[in-house]
Amino acid sequence: MQTSSYVYWEKQGADNLCAVHCVNSLLQGPYYNGADLNSFARELDREEEALLGTKIADGESQNYDASGNYSIGVIEKCLKRFGELRCVNIMGAKTRSEVFSAPHLESGYVCNQSNHWFSLRRVGSGSPASQTWWNLDSLRLQAPAKISGPQELSSLIQSVVGQGYTVFVVRGDAPLPQPSKTANSSGMMTLSSNNGMKGMYLTEREAAELAARAKTAGTSIGGGSGAGDSNGGPNAFTMIAPSGVRNNEQPQKTDWSALGSGRSLGTSTGSSGPSPQPKNDDPELAAALAASLNDIAIPNPGDEPAAGPRVTTVQVRLPNGKRWTRRFSLDTNTLGDLFLWMEWQSLEDGKTTTAASGGQMPLLTSLAGYDVLKQGFGPFRRKFHRVPATQKVTVSGQAAEMECTQLGDAGFEAGQEAVILQL
């Protein structure tokens, strides 16, 4: 088997299965299809039913939907077939410090915003320094995009976070697989699946040629719709140059075709010397990320009610260890009030939390969905699943009217309530 000369690539078409392409690109082979991920999602639903002692309504799922979107738990289920691999949110203080001090030493990253997933992956043999990093975004790119060195990788990750993505680093007790292609096979291959996806094993030269052909044909490497064309697709990321390079310049849209040309982001010429190590205490980066949130509007939830016999104090424990606390009326406040406050609070925290503190979290409204686990016993233990920018919310698998369901009717009790936010 030849393993070091190729990168495995899947291009998203009209299938809306970016999570499948993300997993296969991360694992560097045609391992899964949509049916596989649906099966893993149902497994997770059954595990959550057993844990919570509740029943999810027929046709409903907490871990996937009809649009082809999946939870991070499904992604991890796929990875665990290859060892005890897990996805760790890089916004934790310790993880963030480790990642940005040496991002190239990790094996891969999973990036998610709303219903889009893609991966960044280190591929090749030998030491990490001799291997190549690739951006394998199946939606925005027409070919794998080579990432030139630790500085460019760090800048890309920072940009993705600044655009509202949640980024997970893949870690565990087993290495991620390398691409495995037989010596007598070449070019495009059709996967052994029923969903019509196609995958390719490409050399670095072939990846560059594929990108060049797509660009010549008028297909933007920085864009592309879910159907694979260049009309109306999402914009390229805005890259944030490292400290010392910016000089008050306006942020430039990424020229994806320049990735792999030997240039470091934020510079105009190549450099034969080693890339400087990124810092995780960049005040300009923190200011840039915070400024990007100023254009987002979430209504202020207003004053909280005074303490009283039908009032509860809700304490939310966050993934980064911090807590939010606010009082609510069991009779006049609804689930909508609770989620509006949480989403507003995540926006306010994002404006004031510095990157160096490691306390930043993804903006809740940028996620495809998030869960709130309410502590308690029996019927008072609930799992709320919220889909931002909609009125969709489920309570332990049952659909609920977010703006009409009072907190008292949703199982909250007077006094104090502790809930856990899961992303």
Structure report:
With 423 residues, the protein is of the alpha+beta class. The protein folds into two domains: 7-242 and 253-260, Cathepsin B, Chain A (Alpha-Beta Complex), CATH 3.90.70.40; 311-422, Phosphatidylinositol 3-kinase Catalytic Subunit, Chain A, domain 1 (Ubiquitin-like (UB roll), Roll). Helices cover 24% and strands 20% of the residues. The protein has eight helices and 16 strands. A seven-stranded mixed beta sheet has the order 11-10-16-12-13-14-15, with helices on one face. The protein has a six-stranded antiparallel beta sheet with strand order 2-7-3-4-5-6, with helices on both faces. A three-stranded antiparallel beta sheet has the order 1-9-8. Strand 8 (188-190) and strand 9 form a beta hairpin. The longest helix has 19 residues, at 34-52. The radius of gyration is 22 Å and the shape is elongated.
Compute the gyration radius: what is it?
22 Å
Main sheet summary: 7 strands, mixed
Strands ordered across the widest β-sheet: 11-10-16-12-13-14-15
Number of strands: 16
Helix and strand pattern:
EHHHEHEEEEHEEEHHEEHEEEEE
Quick one: overall form?
elongated
Number of helices: 8
Strand content: 15-25%
Judging by the overall fold, what is the CATH architecture of the largest domain?
Answer: Alpha-Beta Complex
Summing up helix and strand content along with how strands pair, one would put the structural category as alpha+beta
Number of domains: 2
CATH class of the largest domain: Alpha Beta
Q: Share of helix among residues?
A: 10-25%
User: Low-confidence spans: pLDDT under 50, at least 5 residues?
Assistant: 182-196, 219-281, 354-358
Biased composition (Polar residues): 245-255
Subcellular location: Nucleus
Active site: 18, 116, 137
Pfam families: Josephin, UBX
